[in-house]
Every structure is written in structure tokens, then in C-alpha cells.
TrEMBL record:
The active site is at residue 50. Its EC number is 5.4.99.25. It catalyses: uridine(55) in tRNA = pseudouridine(55) in tRNA. It holds the Pfam family TruB_C_2. The keyword Isomerase applies. It is an enzyme of class 5 (isomerase). It comes from Viridibacterium curvum. Residues 35-182 form the Pseudouridine synthase II N-terminal domain. Residues 183-240 form the tRNA pseudouridylate synthase B C-terminal domain. This is tRNA pseudouridine synthase B. Responsible for synthesis of pseudouridine from uracil-55 in the psi GC loop of transfer RNAs. Belongs to the pseudouridine synthase TruB family. Type 1 subfamily. Keywords: Isomerase, tRNA processing. NCBIfam families: TruB. The gene is truB.
């Protein structure tokens, strides 16, 4: 008789895992492996990395998923290596080379070209992207050889440092706004230099205030005993650490916990989003112009029983 595999127990786990995604793995595969390792019933990630990209992939479990928008909207920081002199179908090393040119620029030219992209710029999203056109991802059209006209989008390059130049390769460090495609930035820098370029390495080193140096690899996570894996999680409120704190007690705590507005003292915490605490972290709130605190996202620490599947 075939032995039955033991059934998996999915637990109510809440927190943020800073994962160092490996090369060659999709973000969803990395998410599912981390979720299984932590036996988390509910999980999501905050900003996809291409399979060839490595680095920081914050994985959210349980109630932390309610605050994923905080990281989706956050600035991202990358270290990228561009190869000058050739362009590819995808803008990175995974595509086919379509044009090759001589690289006649010098280091000073590279630094000047990179500096020209600082600040607010217009960027046309690449065809090999998950953006939708008539309900279908652009990369699906690209694989069929179909070019779809794309509108440019305004993005911001906050910092762009050339870390090394060893032609034809150039390594840069970029801090940028959400929606920035580093592949496209690499191509645009190459076009400015007149020789073209594509991306050969990409590593995300920060998402907002979350840093890669605090991340764990999948291999390291899976090597830990299961009870220790949960110790690597940050609490859900770590995603709101940049917001002012409101502390509630008694009736005010009760009202807020049921989604009712709470009258705040004038001149206390400024209007806008706040993180709210009672006896424990309660969720995300917003203080309106009329000085009432209203719930935006409430946490439910007892989100249901464990699930066996």
C-alpha cells in the first residue's frame, strides 16, 4: 500500500518576512516556498521581481497583507549592471541580441549620461512587462511579435550613482519611485551614449525603509527548525513605522475596534494617516479635517482556525 503523505497544517501567521529572492525564480514561486516553510495560511508579496532579478522581496503573512499598499507605493533601491554595446528583445540578458554597436564612450561620458536621468522623467514601459492591454499582459503580445503602443509615464529617479565602470559593463545604484523599469532605464542610458545597452544583473537592496541586509535566503529559512522561522518575521505594524502613533484607551479603543469614528483632541496628532494602538496594534487610521479618527484597515488577530489541507 502507498503511504499517505501527512496533511499540511496552515496556521494563522502574521508578519513580514524579508526574503532574499534567488536568481532564476519567479516572485510567486519564492512566495509560495516561503509561505510553505512558515506554514502560513495567507500570504502575499509587495512588488514583483523578474526571475533574473535577486534581492529584497518582502513577503507578507496574515494580517500584514492588509498593508501591502504601503510597500507597493514605496521607493525602491536597486543595484544594476548594464552591458553597453548591445540591445536585446527583452531589455535584459534573457532576450535575444538584436543590435550590436561599438562602445566608444569613456567613463566621463557614462557618468554624464546617467546624471541626465535624475529627477522626474518620462519613461515608456517595456513590451516585456505585466501591464495589461485589453485584458492581456503586454509580454503575451511581445512573445507573438506584436508591438502595442504604450503611453509614457512620469517617474522619479531620486538618486542615480555610477558605482563602477569596466566597459562594456557599468554598475549603477538607483533609488526610484514606484512604476520604474530598470531595464528601460538601462536601455535609455545606452541610447543616450549612442551604443545601446541591456541589463545583465539586477538586485533590489531596499524597499522604503526595509533593507536587504536584514533579509534571509530561502535556503537559510528552510534550514531553520519550523518554530525558529517565525522569529524572522517583523510585526505587521513595521510597515507603518513612518506614520504618527495614536494611542487609544477605554471607550475610544472600543469604538475604533468596531469601525466607529473617534473624536480626537484638536492640535494633537496632525491630520492624515496614523497607526493606532490600544492594548495592542489595532490598524491603520486616518484623522480627518473634522478631527475624527476613522479606521482604514483594522487587524483581526484571531483570523480563524488553523486549516489542514
Amino acid at each position: 500500500m502507498n503511504e499517505q503523505r501527512p496533511r499540511k497544517v496552515w496556521r494563522q501567521v502574521h508578519g513580514v518576512l524579508l526574503l532574499d529572492k534567488p536568481d532564476g525564480m519567479t516572485s510567486n514561486t519564492a512566495l509560495q516556498k516561503a509561505r510553505r516553510a512558515c506554514s502560513a495560511a495567507k500570504a502575499g508579496h509587495t512588488g514583483t521581481l523578474d526571475p533574473m532579478a535577486t534581492g529584497l522581496l518582502p513577503v507578507l503573512f496574515g494580517e500584514a497583507t492588509k498593508f501591502s499598499h504601503m510597500l507597493l507605493d514605496a521607493d525602491k533601491t536597486y543595484r544594476a549592471t548594464l552591458r553597453l554595446g548591445s540591445t536585446t528583445t527583452t531589455g535584459d540578458r534573457e532576450g535575444e541580441v538584436i543590435v550590436e554597436r561599438d562602445v566608444s564612450c569613456c567613463e566621463a561620458d557614462v557618468r554624464a549620461a546617467a546624471a541626465s536621468f535624475l529627477g522626474e522623467i518620462e519613461q515608456v514601459p517595456p513590451m516585456y512587462s505585466a501591464l495589461k492591454h485589453e485584458g492581456k499582459a503586454l509580454y503575451d503580445y511581445a512573445r507573438q511579435g506584436i508591438e502595442i503602443e504604450r503611453k509614457s509615464r512620469r517617474i522619479t529617479i531620486f538618486e542615480l550613482e555610477v558605482e563602477s565602470v569596466a566597459l562594456p559593463d557599468v554598475t549603477i545604484r538607483v533609488r526610484c519611485s514606484k512604476g520604474t523599469y530598470i531595464r528601460t532605464l538601462a536601455e535609455d542610458i545606452g541610447n543616450t551614449l549612442g551604443c545601446g545597452a541591456h541589463l545583465v544583473a539586477l538586485r533590489r537592496i531596499a524597499t522604503g525603509d526595509l533593507m536587504l541586509e536584514h533579509a534571509i535566503s530561502l535556503a537559510e529559512l528552510e534550514a531553520l527548525d519550523e518554530p525558529l522561522r517565525e522569529t524572522r518575521l517583523l510585526p505587521p505594524d513595521s510597515l507603518l513605522a513612518h506614520l504618527p502613533v495614536v494611542q487609544l484607551m477605554g471607550e475610544m479603543e472600543q469604538r475604533f475596534s468596531h469601525g466607529n469614528p473617534v473624536r480626537m483632541e484638536q492640535g494633537g496628532v496632525p491630520h492624515g494617516e496614523v497607526r493606532v494602538y490600544g492594548q495592542h496594534f489595532m490598524g491603520l487610521g486616518r484623522i480627518r479635517e473634522d478631527d475624527t479618527l476613522r479606521a482604514v484597515r483594522l487587524v483581526a488577530w484571531h483570523g480563524g482556525p488553523d486549516v489542514v489541507a
